[in-house]
Structure formats: C-alpha cells, structure tokens
Amino acid sequence: MGQKRKRVWTFTSCCHRRQETHYADNERVKVSVVRTGLEQRLIALVPAIKEVYMPCRTSYLDATGQWNISCYAELDDLPDAMVPGAVVHPPMAVVLQPLLDGLTERLCTWWLARHPEFSAFELHRVQTFVTRYSVHRGETHLTRHVDGPHVDASFILQLHSERFTGGGVRVWDSENSRDYTDYALETGDLCMLDHLVWHQSLPVTSGERWVLVVFCQKRPKRPKQHVAHAERSTARCQKAIALATSAAHATCTIDEEQAQALAHMLSSSGMDERERAAFTVGCLAASSASNQTTIVDSGALPLLVNMLRTPAPPLSKERGWAAAALARLATNNSRNKAMIAGLGAIPTLVEMLSSEQDLEAEEAASALCNLSANNEANKHLISMSGAVSALVKCLEGAKPKQRIWSACTLSNLATDPVVCRQIWRAGAIERLVHLLHSDTSKERRRAAAALASLARGEPSTHSAISAAGVRPVLEAMLRDAEESIEATSLLEVLRCHGEKAGPEH
C-alpha cells in the first residue's frame, strides 16, 4: 500500500488562496491551485463557448480513436505538440482570446518564480482546448498521464459548469509514487502544473464538467519590436476570424479595404496569419457573390494558388484552407474558374487528392468539383492531369466529405465519353455502388447522381451499372423525399437506354 492519501477540499471562503502542494523529495513547488476571480466572466462566457464547441476525434493516450470531447482553439505547428486528428476550430479561438493572454501571463509568472534559471525565457502556448467531460462511456475523465516532454508548464481552468458531481484533478508526487492529492475545482479555479507532473482528471459521475486546458513551452524572450509585431499579427488574426464568424452566421459583405487586408495576410511570413486569412476568405466567398468579386479584385487568387504549392509543416492547415477558399471562389463563377485554372492550380489540386491530410484531400476534391461544374475546358484540364484514378481512390477515403466531393467531381467529368470510360476502367462503378449503401444520405445521393452521369455517358458503363445489382437500394431510396430525386433519375436513365434496373442477376 502507498502512503496515506492526501485530499484538498474546496474552501468555502472565495477570498482565501489554496495551499500549494510540495513534493516530499523536492523543495520546488510542482503544482498550485488558486482562485482567479474570473467567476462572473466565466458564467457570462460559457454560453458562447458551448455555442461554438465542436469536438474533433483524436488519438490521445488510452483513448486512441475514441477521444471526441475536446475542441481545439490553438495548436502549434511543432510535431511534438500535435495530437493526431486534432483540428483547430477558429471560432473557439475568437471566444477564448480575451482570457488567454492574462492566464498565460499568470502561469508564466508562477513558473518563472520556480525556475529562475529560465529568466531569459517566456512561455508560449502550443495547445489550447476546451474539454467537456460527461457520464458517457469514454467521456468521464482522462487517466493518469503527464502532458508531454515538450510541455514546460500547463494550466487547467475550471469553467462554469452547472449541476455536475465528481470531477477535479488528482496529482501524484512522482512517477512511481502512490501518494497523491485531489483538488475539487470550482468555477474560476486555476490549476497550474510544472513540467512532467503526473496527474489525471477525476471521473464525472453526473452532469457535465467543462474545462479550459493550455499547454505551454518555454521560448527565448523576444525583443520588444518582435513582440509588437506579434501583437499586430494577433490583432489581424482576430479581425479575420471575427469576419469569418460573421459570415458563417449571416451574410457578411466586405469592402475593398478589408479584402486588401486579407490579401496582405495571405502573403504574410507568419503561418497563423496565412491560415486564418485563407479560412476567412473561404467563409466570405461562400457568403455572397459580391464578396467573391471583391476578394478576387484584391489580388487574392495568385496568393492562394501559391499557398497550394508551398511546402507546409506536418498537420498544417494552410494548403487545405487555401484549397477551400479556391473552391468557394469558383462556385457559380465562370470568370473565377477560368482565372484559377489559368494560374495553374489544377495540377496541384490533383496532387493534393493523394495527401495524407484529410483536410487537404477533401478540399482539393471540393475545388475540383466546383472548377469542373459547367466548364468543359476545366474538365479537360482535370482529366489530363491524371485526376480520374486519384478521385476513384478517394471514393474509399476515410472521411465522408472526401467521398462526397470525389463522387461529385466524377459526375461532372463523366459527361465526356472518353473520360467516362476511364472512370469505369478505374473501378469507380463498384465503389459508387458501395456508397449507395452508406449510412449517410448525402453519400447515397451523390453516388446515385454519379452513376446516372456514367450511365448517360457510355453504353458500356450503362451496362455495367445495370448489372451491378442497384435496384433494391434504389427502391429503398425512393421512400425518402430527398433521395428519391437521384434514385428516380438513375432508374429513368437505365430505362431510357433499354435496360431496366431489375431483376438483377
């Protein structure tokens, strides 16, 4: 058995500071839990946090492939700081920004007081995320761990969480020690952890517990002029994300000055600025046709195409957001389609279909779909760039969006009989028939539409589809108001060409 269990309960007087816990074998304080005085601000802020909360499925500790309760606001481009599957959700960064700098400064002050040998350093945030714990399986807590060798200090801020029981933080004295301390955190409590502290969250037994977690890494202190530049960069990023958020919730029309500012960010030396500018351009372009014109007139297109060609760090979102922006700018806009193709974007987008990053492959397929819609010249360029085999392979991609956009692009390309035969020979029909059985309605609809285009394009593809056993699933789709449109269209094409969809054999 280990030493006697220690427990630190929540105190009743909010004006008192929690005691700091010392290791038995080290004079240095490794954890501190304090009041921040942010209770009222957090009560007011939590509704906005919940509104933009969008967790992503990640591989994390023993929750490999199942951890789906954290929404990332910031994620550094350092490989050691990345979590497989984690995707930054910019609206969460906008909501949290008023809190982050002050809390990070507080952590830095505490950490430097305990590490005078690092007086020439400051703490830089490498991961920022909101986690929602609940009673559901796999969501109650995170087991015993350290935050990673790249994390020099971290904090956990207890957000306002109504009517939950359990929770809190358990901290061990060392890796092999059984002696630990439990902290039952209240709204506004800040738990600050030093490097390589073993800890875990305690299971939630009812309700939901919301926390803000930040991992920091020490970096050499920057000269004042660099700090000023970083502050200006942060301000520009905040303005860009505010525009993107407005565009996502309502029509947002930008003026020439705002478009020029975004174009300037697209050419920035800072990856954060380029990523956020590309993301914002995509949101604004999807918002209105007038925004498409204003953005293109600002000179953004060459910059976005150049971003596609620029090597990016592992798991960077830069190329993916650039492809997404081009996709939105090409939507229902023949002028922009021609300009994007003229800048040489199509071969690069075709290469991105084979990217190991899901976002890049998805948005490349989306861009190719919009570029090929009602544009014969672009269809020819796409097929000549070797897109068919890559698109067919994407039909088996890991993400629904990748499969959907690939099916849409193949549907557009299939209007050319020569390309139609290429698509058939590449094995698309079998994969599209498989998608007809998908659990997702949109996948079933896009697969049926692509099969209809293939059936129209070439007698051989028509025969192959007729023999593929599609009638039962098409009849099932007829019972759905939306899916019946594509199902009826495919059945009609098969009948008009003299081959009924059944009976199959």
UniProtKB/TrEMBL annotation:
SMART domains: ARM. The keyword Lipoprotein applies. GO terms for biological process: nucleus-vacuole junction assembly. Residues 122-218 form the Fe2OG dioxygenase domain. One of its GO terms (molecular function) is protein-membrane adaptor activity. Gene3D superfamilies: Leucine-rich Repeat Variant (1.25.10.10), q2cbj1_9rhob like domain (2.60.120.620). PANTHER family: VACUOLAR PROTEIN 8 (PTHR47249). This is Vacuolar protein 8. The gene is PUB11.
